[in-house]
Design brief:
This protein has 200 residues and is α+β, with helices and mostly antiparallel strands. Helix content is 30%, strand content 26%. The termini are far apart.
């Protein structure tokens, strides 16, 4: 078992200069362009119990708004109301973001602290034709850097030939019914998708 940094570094050489220097304290023009094109971000957060959580968020390209080089606004859209991310932000405020653009193997990582804002100006900036969010996650950036393409190249995530048919797994309704030990009839995939579409 590896238990020390020294043991770990026996297996891995030091990071190359480019990998170290690419980390920025704020967004530059390339980071801003990436966020403006991205329709998807994963938010990782830390709870008061030191448990970690990662939650996907999506919208039209550029749904995450750039206030300035140090500040982002992420609108909160309807979900399952567990509020794991939002509660974690209240407790610790520590967040990490991973932005993706479909078809692009490079990703953008952003780390920082966050708070939950209901300021009218923040809500207005994130308002769409569909809704005004109840709140926005306001991120103060401490680190930003582009992440290399290797993981996506290995996984062939965007390659249609690597995509699987949805039918190889049970519907979400069927899986949750079993996992939760419920006795009510499982929601079919078609019923679930219709409910999702009504809540988008």
């Amino acid at each position: 078992m590896i238990q020390t940094i020294e043991q770990l570094r026996v297996l891995y050489p030091p990071a190359k200069e480019r990998a170290v220097k690419k980390q920025l304290p704020a967004l530059d023009m390339y980071c801003e362009r990436y966020i403006g094109l991205s329709p998807f971000v994963v938010i990782s957060s830390l709870g008061v119990d030191q448990m970690l959580d990662a939650s996907p968020r999506g919208g039209a390209s550029g749904f995450v708004k750039i206030v300035d080089a140090h500040t982002l606004l992420i609108p909160d859209s309807p979900g399952n109301n567990r509020l794991d991310t939002l509660e974690n932000i209240i407790h610790t405020g520590q967040v990490g973001l991973l932005f993706l653009i479909p078809g692009m193997d490079e990703t953008l990582r952003v780390n920082g602290t966050a708070c939950l804002s209901v300021a009218p100006a923040d809500l207005e900036q994130c308002t769409t034709d569909v809704r005004t969010p109840k709140l926005v996650i306001k991120v103060s950036i401490t680190q930003a850097y582009m992440h290399c393409a290797k993981a996506f190249m290995r996984s062939k995530l965007w390659d249609p030939q690597s995509h699987i048919d949805r039918s190889v797994m049970p519907s979400m309704g069927e899986m949750v019914t079993v996992q939760a030990g419920m006795t009510t009839p499982a929601e079919t995939q078609e019923e679930m998708m219709a409910r999702y579409r009504a809540e988008l």
